[in-house]
Amino acid sequence: MNQRIRELAEQANLTIATSPLWEHKVQEFAQLIVKECAEIADVERPSSLGCGYITKTKGMLIKEHFGVKE
Length: 70
Description:
This protein is mainly alpha-helical. It has helices at 3-11, 20-41, 58-66.
């Protein structure tokens, strides 16, 4: 689990160390939230990867921050 997601789970008083299944479910839930937020962030400015130069969108930066893969 990404360290930032773990820190946020702890701030929410979620005890994730007690069960590997619970940790997996928390991680899966967090990743779904991150992906949806990243999609919303990219609505205003879609990816410019096809414009001849590579730049990271806000959505890409959000996913990177939380360690979420495509």
